[in-house]
Amino acid sequence: MKLTVIGCWGGYPKVNEASTGYLLEHDGFRLLIDCGSGVLSKLQQYVDPTDLDACIVTHYHADHIADIGVLQHALIVQKYLQPMVRNLPIYGHQLDEQAFRKLTYKDITTGKAYDPSQTLRIGPFTISFLPTVHPVPCFAFRIEAAGKIFVFTGDSAFQDSFIEFAKDANLLLCECNFYANMDGGNAGHMNSKDAGTLAAAANVKQLVLTHLPQYGIIENLVTEAGEYYDGRIHLAEGGQVWEI
Ligand SMILES: [Zn+2]
Ligand SMILES: [Zn+2]
Predict the structure, then answer these.
(1) Mean of the per-residue pLDDT values for the chain?
(2) What residues contact residue 116 under an 8 Å CB cut-off, 6+ apart?
(3) Domain Metallo-beta-lactamase spans what residues (predicted)?
């Protein structure tokens, strides 16, 4: 699997950057994971939106879905120009019916509900789900392909069930919206200590911190997480590519 970071900021994007969005590719299949503010603009550096095969969203906060509408506009404009543009499936949960309905747009995109109690096959990817601890319903994804495991926490406070869910992941993409001396739990987010603790307990091969805060010295998040996990730790950054 090849993972490209499109955007990595929590809540809103820094200037000229994007909030949550990741492109996951395998065997020529292109899956966009979350589509937050700024993602459509940044995405076009790596892939033509008409070449996406599917999109999946963790939850319906704006920093994860703000650019779904403009993705739909991009596809409708391109469909006028090139009639072969395909209908894009966008997978999301159905626990917020109103938000889910917006995933479907004319004959351009189709909202598809994932059942979090079942594994889901999208192209070459097998995806399982874990409900997270967040102010609105949100799901973490464990995505497997070609014997490799990629886990994305989505937005969440720390919960013990993450440990089994992320077990032995080749790459754990963990939200880290707060510094170690801050309590992210009340806001439904993790801090650097939580991320390091999870990576160690789940025995993951490497840890990438994302959903980053716009303040403070973000490199400190790596140092802080490193007090709990002795594997490789990286900060997510737009344009970064991981081979998993
Ligand atoms: Zn978020
Ligand atoms: Zn959120």
Answers:
(1) 98
(2) 93, 129, 130, 131, 139
(3) 18-211
| The Cα angle at residue 58 between residues 85 and 185, in degrees rounded to 5 | 160
The pTM is what? 0.98
Report the CATH number of the 1-115 domain. 3.60.15.10
Mean pLDDT of the region 4-14: 98
Starting from the CA of residue 210, give the closest ligand.
1
Which of 115, 85, 91, 114 is CA-nearest to residue 103? 91
Kindly state the average pLDDT of the residues 229-236.
98
Q: Tell me, in angstroms, the distance from the centre of ligand 2 to residue 97's CA.
A: 17
Rounded Cα distance between 156 and 133, Å, is: 5
Domain residue ranges of the chain, discontinuous segments joined by +: 1-115
Q: How far is the CA of 59 from the centre of ligand 1 (A)?
A: 9
